[in-house]
């Protein structure tokens, strides 16, 4: 059986507007963040997409986004899709983060000496968590609200590449088809007024 997974990033938060690192720590959605979530909801309604189950990371910003998008209070939280831990850089200005190595497209293991996570480990835990949910249920359509670095880590784990400059803005949605252990990214939806859709 092929499942549909809609994996999306949370809406804009206070720390996002302040340019502060937000990984394991948390901050609330802004009014704009709530509006972004409702715009994503509008996309799902327009496309007649419904969910058999709704999940979020254990962090407030993701859970609140999931509730706004799905209009469900019963959202199942999953630790495995929480955001990457940035160690001692948590809540600090983003400008203090280490720079990517030449040619790299992620922090790789640069945060590990500072008590943070390796992006590859983040991708592995995210995939393991999603696999566990898929194997334990017969749900055909799932919404999971997660985080930018976690989604990027998962895509690295799945060996998915993106065109240069394309990433996960707030409330970006990755539409996957999952058959057994095979993940296929079908679309990246950016919830702007015109719903930018990139097909893969």
From TrEMBL:
PROSITE patterns: PG_MUTASE. GO terms for molecular function: phosphatase activity. Signal peptide: none annotated. Pfam families: His_Phos_1. InterPro entries: His_Pase_superF_clade-1, His_PPase_superfam, PG/BPGM_mutase_AS, PGM_Phosphatase. Substrate binds at residues 9-16, 61. One of its GO terms (cellular component) is cytoplasm. This is Probable phosphoglycerate mutase. It comes from Streptococcus henryi.
């Amino acid at each position: 059986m092929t499942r549909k997974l809609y994996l999306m990033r949370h809406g804009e938060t206070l720390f996002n507007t302040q340019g502060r690192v937000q990984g394991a720590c948390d901050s609330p959605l802004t009014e704009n963040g709530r509006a972004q979530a409702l715009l994503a909801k509008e996309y799902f309604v327009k496309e007649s997409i419904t969910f058999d189950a709704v999940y979020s990371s254990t962090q407030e910003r993701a859970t609140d986004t999931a509730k706004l998008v799905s209009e469900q209070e019963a959202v199942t939280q999953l630790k495995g899709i929480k955001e990457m831990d940035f160690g001692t850089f948590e809540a600090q200005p983003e400008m203090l983060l280490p720079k990517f190595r030449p040619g790299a497209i992620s922090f790789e293991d640069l945060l590990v000496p500072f008590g943070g996570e390796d992006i590859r480990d983040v991708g592995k835990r995210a995939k393991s968590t999603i696999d566990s949910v898929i194997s334990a249920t017969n749900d055909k359509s799932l919404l999971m609200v997660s985080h930018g670095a976690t989604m990027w880590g998962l895509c690295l784990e799945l060996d998915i590449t993106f065109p240069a400059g394309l990433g996960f803005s707030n409330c970006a949605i990755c539409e996957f088809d999952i058959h057994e252990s095979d993940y296929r990214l079908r679309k990246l939806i950016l919830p702007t007024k015109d719903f930018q859709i990139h097909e893969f």
